[in-house]
Amino acid sequence: MRMLSCDCRCNCTLAAIILSALAGVLAAFLQVTAVITVTPVFLWVTFGIAVAYLVGLLVAAARGGGQDFSQCQCIALNTVLVGILGTILFSLVLLAVGIVATSVVNAIIVGLTVGFFALILTATACLIRNLFDCR
């Protein structure tokens, strides 16, 4: 629970987690009702974006290893990292097993993939807000 209750006044990690969970549930529902279909191109794009984020974080960590971060910035970075790893894992799972439009298991995995991808985007917005708003 420490991740969700930062002392910093501009912590938005909880909002990022809630928004990404809502996006994942909505995507799973739309996938199981066959309103949307997830193509391998979408999975490759999310996988590529997540890998690019991971490389960017590794390069930033290597270049600024001694930099001091606030507690909120560290929490936001950890949230981005969780989103990256979840997106990579679940997009690879979907690419490996194939996508069936009406399968409940595939809908859950699609929801997790979209949820973790949304977590990358919302947590990045939170991190940018923390970098430039918190004093």
Summarize it.
This protein is mostly helical and 135 residues long. It is built from 4 helices and no strands.
What's the number of extended β-strand segments?
0
As a percent range, the share of helical residues equals over 70%
**How would you describe the shape?**
elongated
Alpha-carbon distance between the two ends: 23 Å
User: In what range is the share of β-strand residues?
Assistant: under 5%
Class based on secondary structure composition and strand pairing: mainly alpha
Query: What's the number of domains?
Result: 1
Order of helices and strands: HHHH
Low-confidence stretches: 1-5
How many alpha or pi helices?
4
The main sheet comes to: none
Q: Mean of the pLDDT scores?
A: 82
Radius of gyration, whole Å: 16 Å
Give a written overview of the molecule.
It is a single chain. This protein is an all-alpha fold and 135 residues long. It has one domain (13-62, 72-133). The chain has four helices and no strands.
